[in-house]
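Here is the promised in-class demo. Please do not try to memorize the tokens; focus on the logic of going from shape to residues.
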């Protein structure tokens, strides 16, 4: 087990140190554990690795990436932003509404894609009003990070949780007779909106925006809405006993997302009488994230086979004892602190089996249901990224847009918004989760 732990820590550090090569580092780690299994060091085979890969998650992510690209190309997000801003009285309200829009979109669309959709509108408004676009785009980024945890398809970490815990789209709203994480995220969003309103309290310049953007195609919007609707419907399908139908059942969410994406791409190719939309959509997919997740599934299974996950669970249990509230607070605090500096995707992927293990050790070894702790982990890991400029990909994307437009973004500029925003969202969101699920 010691060797496995050393190797895992080494590969994790390398993933943090060379961010641009993270997928290849993770793939190298997966290959290392497969080699050790082949040599007989651990009981880890190629068949174990194949079973560890959640192809439903990978298909779901790839399909959503393609559909979101078509949605952005349709210019519907920009149109929505202009429609909303045209009905607000001043800059304070404009920033808050843009943040709300970013949050709403991010509940169903990847956070970085959300920033790419909404940020240009915020940039244009700031220029028109002759105010700094820096706080505007930071507000958009942190709001999109928060709402990523609201639904199954809102963020990579949400998709990871759904795949690991067997949760469906509806479970994020209502699960086992109790409110899901969606409602705690929304309560946190309301609290953080109050923070934004207070931070921009002096920005009372009137706003005058014309609705100029024309939506070029309504079908991508319909496809995105249909994806969400079918994911909900698929969650109610009865599980077949076996065979091909059971295989299709295990891949149902991924097949829904990928099927609608392919339909949208095929339609775009037919309309343009060329394969250009296919090439553009293929290039828009985030292959690095897909390869990273594929590799992490195998790497973490190898680590689990070596006994590291069980040891980590025992360590958390020794720190928290049999007190659920102590474990919950420990998970939320650790996730917020760590996710401020490290990417939350490998962190959540590594911690999900640990949380499952420590929940099984609670209550004198009888175990307790892990859902509260899963939601606490996801809440902390999602919100922690808002504490620093490098804590989340959406932050990096927003800062990159600002720098490309000649703006200087200081760390203090980000902290002035990110810290109070995060504190309000964590206290209200995590607190309401405990009230809903406290055991």
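The designed amino acids, position by position:
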């Amino acid at each position: 087990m010691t060797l496995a732990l050393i190797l895992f820590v080494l590969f994790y550090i390398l993933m943090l140190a060379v961010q641009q090569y993270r997928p290849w580092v993770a793939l190298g780690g997966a290959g290392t554990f497969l080699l050790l299994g082949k040599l007989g060091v651990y009981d880890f085979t190629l068949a174990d690795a194949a079973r560890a890969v959640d192809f439903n998650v990978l298909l779901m992510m790839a399909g959503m990436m393609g559909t979101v690209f078509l949605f952005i190309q349709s210019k519907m997000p920009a149109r929505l932003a202009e429609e909303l801003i045209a009905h607000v009285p001043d800059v304070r309200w404009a920033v808050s509404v843009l943040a709300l829009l970013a949050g709403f979109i991010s509940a169903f669309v990847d956070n970085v894609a959300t920033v790419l959709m909404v940020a240009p509108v915020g940039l244009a408004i700031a220029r028109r009003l002759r105010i700094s676009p820096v706080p505007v785009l930071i507000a958009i980024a942190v709001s999109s990070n928060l709402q990523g945890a609201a639904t199954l398809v809102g963020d990579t970490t949400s998709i990871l949780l759904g795949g690991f815990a067997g949760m469906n789209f509806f479970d994020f709203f209502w699960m086992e007779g109790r409110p899901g994480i969606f409602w705690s995220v929304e309560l946190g969003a309301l609290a953080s909106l109050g923070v934004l309103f207070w931070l921009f309290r002096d920005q009372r310049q009137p706003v005058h925006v014309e609705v100029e953007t024309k939506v070029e195609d309504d079908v991508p919007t319909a496809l995105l809405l249909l994806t969400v609707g079918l994911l909900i419907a698929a969650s109610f399908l009865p599980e077949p006993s076996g065979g091909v139908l059971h295989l299709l059942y295990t891949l149902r969410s991924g097949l829904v997302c990928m099927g609608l994406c392919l339909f949208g791409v095929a339609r775009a190719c037919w309309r343009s009488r060329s394969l250009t939309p296919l090439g553009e959509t293929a290039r828009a997919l985030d292959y690095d994230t897909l390869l990273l997740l594929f590799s992490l599934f195998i790497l973490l299974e190898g680590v689990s086979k070596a006994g590291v996950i069980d040891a980590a669970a025992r360590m958390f249990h020794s720190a928290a004892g049999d007190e659920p509230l102590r474990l919950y607070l420990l998970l939320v605090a650790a996730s917020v602190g760590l996710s401020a500096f490290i990417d939350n995707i490998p962190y959540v992927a590594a911690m999900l089996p640990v949380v499952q293990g420590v929940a099984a050790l609670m209550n004198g070894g009888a175990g307790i249901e892990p859902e509260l702790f899963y939601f606490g982990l996801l809440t902390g890991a999602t919100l922690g990224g808002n504490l620093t400029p490098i804590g989340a990909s959406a932050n990096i994307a927003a800062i990159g847009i600002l720098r490309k437009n000649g703006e200087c973004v200081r760390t203090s500029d980000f902290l002035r918004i990110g810290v109070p925003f995060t504190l309000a969202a964590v206290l209200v969101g995590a607190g309401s989760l405990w009230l809903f699920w406290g055991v």
